Amino acid sequence: MDEHRLGLKPIVWKMWAERGKAPTVAVFHRYAWIYVYAFVCPQTGESQYWPLPSVNTPAFQVVLDQFARDTDAGKSREIVLVLDGAGWHTTPQLKCPEGVQLIFLPPYSPELQPAERLWSLTDAPLVNRHFETLTALTDVLLIWS
């Protein structure tokens, strides 16, 4: 499980262009963000995404509770969730649902986080595009996922 920030500041990647012509990308930097909470099963590749306007303990609690319901975590099914040490993951205010066990990665070790590999896939439909609003960006994300 991990979170990723996306926003109105464009993601600019390399692109193909006709020889001798420079490619152009509309860029209008604005700093409004949406956060994508993502869960991935490393064995199957099955993933789940939730776009939310903030990243904090109450938002993570909502996502974690919904994840537990969607995966039928409980007395008969135990799910081990690998997380980084973000403050909203480690706070005592977080109530872990029954059937979900949280395991924390060592500090500064994103290479051990399976969910990190999702972010290039999440960025792909947004690359070299300009969005007027976060709603327009979210609509593209929801179609993609």
TrEMBL record:
InterPro entries found in the cross-reference section: RNaseH_sf (IPR036397), Tc1-like_DDE_dom (IPR038717), Transpos_IS630-like (IPR047655)
Top-level taxon in the UniProt lineage: Bacteria
Coiled-coil intervals, chain numbering: none
A Pfam family that the UniProt record links to this protein: DDE_3
Domain Tc1-like transposase DDE: 1-137
Record protein name field: IS630 family transposase
Species in which this protein is naturally found: Deinococcus arenicola
